[in-house]
Amino acid sequence: MKLMMDYVRPYMRQLSVGVFIKFFGTIMDLLLPWILAYIIDTVVPLRDRRQILFWGGIMILTSIAALTLNIIANRMASKIARDSTENIRHDLFAKISYLSASQLDKYGVPTLVSRLTTDTYNVNHTIGRIQRMGIRGPILLLGGIVVTLTLDPVLTLVLIATMPFIVVTVYFISKIGIPQFTKLQEEVDHLIQVVRENITGARVIKALSKEEYEKNRFSTVNDVVVQAETKANLTMAVNSPLMNLFLNTGLTLVILVSAFRVNAGTTQPGVVVAFMSYFTIILNAMLSITRIFVIISRGLASADRISTILSTPSDLTVETEDTIETDAFIQFQHVSFAYQEGQETLSDIHFSLKQGETLGIIGPTGSGKTTLIKLLMRLYDPSEGTIRINGRNVNSIPQEELHSLFGVAFQRDILFADTLKENIDFGRQLPLDEIVRSTDFAQADEFIDSLEDGLNHSVHSKGSNLSGGQKQRVVVSRALADEPAILILDDSSSALDYQTDARLRRAIVENFTETTKIIIAQRISSIQHADYILMIEDGKTIGFGTHEELMQRNETYREISRSQMGGAEFA
Tell me: the pLDDT tens digits for 48-87? Predict the structure, then answer.
């Protein structure tokens, strides 16, 4: 509830006006039965047609006023709910964007997607309904009771006797229902995860003819969601029949008592008619309040999930300046790292590079090559050791400043549903000539020039309308644009043929002399001309040096070179 109040607070002025209008619209509704009772008991016995028409006209005007005021108030409520939710969604998206890689791993993409969509919708629904039904319902309930007290206190007290049963019922049902809605949202997270996996892996599923298996897996998860939602809704659905039971029991008693009182002459027939109308109003008000409890239960569960993300503190805080004088531009000083405690991914990595030098990294899949890059970019903090750029500890460099140093082409990089130009520019507002030059260096100009609309060619989501080699060259173009201080190519030429790969490497060497380059590759030919080559296996350094040095003293490196290129070429 605190989350919703924090985001509604800027709209308190509009909210107050809306409540004021809703209040008077509801009062108009309450006046109608009272006017009807007055006509029956006072005006009709006078047999004055003009009086009847006059008060009938008053009832019509009151009805029109009630309708108009309620419509205006509801529109204002919807606008406040819309604007508040827009701000919540914006802040939540911004927070998710700045979560560290370890925090993203902790929460998982499916639950973040669910909180950004389903949960924000539930909060929107709650904010809107509270302003509409949450204000109107209590006013009708309390106002109906007050008016009926003025008409006949005895009959009203009979009706009020049912209220304690209603309050206790609502309390216990809400107490049980809120945790069930929280559990429901967790199951929705799991459902989203399965759907994302099925969509992402659609080609693999079709290739292996696993459609039926995935249908069954989805059906199982979907059934769990249905069961959780059914359980939560059934719990909250108990409200309505119990409310009807209590209120209709009260109505039965009211009718019995009123029959005796009319017979005794202590109550007027018009009062009984008005009382029945007010009873209907009170009944509907109570049902509205119980529905509000259902909506609030779901909304509070969602708001709590959103608050958890918004209140998550950053685990990559910028620490105090820690700078040393050094000739090295990039330094790894005995760095170790583990994704899970007790299972080291990298162990005692130690090397340094001067500005403009090139480091090639080679090793089997899962050896920790990409993890090393993530530590350099401070997507994670090392468990032990220090990483420095130009003498500064990376944990003392603000994130925006740190990441501006890099041009990166990740192993599993992504292209967005936009033009080639926008995918390369990536919101940096780069001059067109820089974008064209980067495509030339990345050897992407060959296929871009063959396209009818060139750089304005539309790319489908994830680059599905481009070949593997074309996607890699566009990603490398993005990394080369804006001439980064540190260029990272993480296995970004694996889909290129040897000739194109050689031209790409030559262009980088000739045109990025001041850029420090880190190249992760599976092929020795992609890194053999690097100033240094780092060999990693099981997270440990098993070789470091130039190509010639490793060929002379590292048997593993020699075996890889023989298997890939033939021993004669490196003799």
Answer: 888 889 988 999 999 999 999 999 999 999 999 999 999 9
Residue 291 has pLDDT above 80, yes or no: no
pLDDT score recorded for residue 1: 66
| Residue 80: predicted pLDDT | 93
Element spanning 339, H or E: strand 330-340
Question: CATH number of the domain at 2-180+237-310, out of 3.50.50.60, 3.10.20.70, 1.20.1560.10, 3.40.50.2000?
Answer: 1.20.1560.10
Average pLDDT over residues 429-450: 90
Closest by Cα among 230, 198, 189, 200 to 217: 198
Triad 59, 135, 85: Cα angle to 5°: 130
Cα 569 from Cα 525, distance rounded (Å) = 11
CATH of segment(s) 411-483: 3.40.50.300
The residue length of the chain stands at 571
pLDDT in tens, 499-512: 888 888 889 988 99
Nearest residue to 23 (alpha-carbon basis) of 132, 136, 134, 130: 136
Residues 205-225 have a mean pLDDT of: 88
Contact 30, 277 (CB under 8 A): no
Q: Any idea which residue has 């809306």 for tokens? A: 18
Residue range 319-405+485-497+513-543, CATH number = 3.40.50.300
Could you tell me the CA-to-CA distances from 110 to 194, 197, 308, 560 in Å, in that order? 9, 10, 15, 40
